[in-house]
Specification:
The protein is of the alpha+beta class. It contains five helices and six strands, in the order H-E-H-H-E-E-E-E-H-E-H. It comes from Janibacter limosus.
Length: 178
């Protein structure tokens, strides 16, 4: 991905940041290993061990591996930044856009000893965000410096890159609306 976020946003492109896939690769390796163990147990034993082998092969081979591959192909979380529409933090499906007019500031915070990015919203927008979050039962971390939308730390890009992209989007929106 090009790191010149301002130029891409000025051309009308949307920036997409997805979750890191390393966890799913690890899960895929574990499922593969337990499937092999289950097949080995299945082939060389009888009785309860054979049933354990069937259970391991079915659960990890027929359920775990397809799930991990699906999550590798289609990650569960995506951050989208658009100069026109704003920011969308989507988890499984569509989520509402947070317009730039509702974002007062883009901050950096430290959450659980890791740097993260927080969108500070105007009070009315923060109330809507909290209501939507309760309605969808989304798991979103609380901002340490007060109300705000925490950009999840599972995004594959570094927090500095996400911060630069969000600042470029906010600047592009400010230039268009002025």
């Amino acid at each position: 991905m090009s790191t010149n976020h301002a130029a891409r946003l000025a051309r009308g492109e949307e920036l997409h940041f997805r979750t890191a896939r390393t966890g799913m690769i690890f899960l895929l390796m574990i499922c593969g290993g337990f499937t092999i163990i289950g097949l080995c147990i299945l082939g060389g034993s009888d009785g309860l061990l054979r049933m354990l082998g069937i259970a391991l092969a079915v659960f990890f081979g027929l359920v775990g591996i397809p799930f991990a591959v699906w999550r590798l192909i289609r990650p569960a979380l995506e951050l989208t930044i658009s100069a026109d529409r704003g920011v969308r933090v989507a988890r499984e499906g569509t989520a509402p856009w947070i317009p730039w007019a509702d974002i007062m500031q883009v901050d950096r915070e430290v959450l659980a000893a890791r740097p993260t990015v927080v969108l500070r919203l105007v009070p009315q927008a923060q109330e809507r965000w909290d209501a939507d979050r309760r309605a969808t039962q989304a798991v979103v971390e609380e901002a340490p410096g007060g109300p705000g939308v925490v950009i999840p730390q599972t995004i594959a890009a570094a927090p500095e890159e996400v911060l630069r992209a969000l600042e470029a989007g906010h600047d592009a929106w400010s230039a268009r609306s002025a």
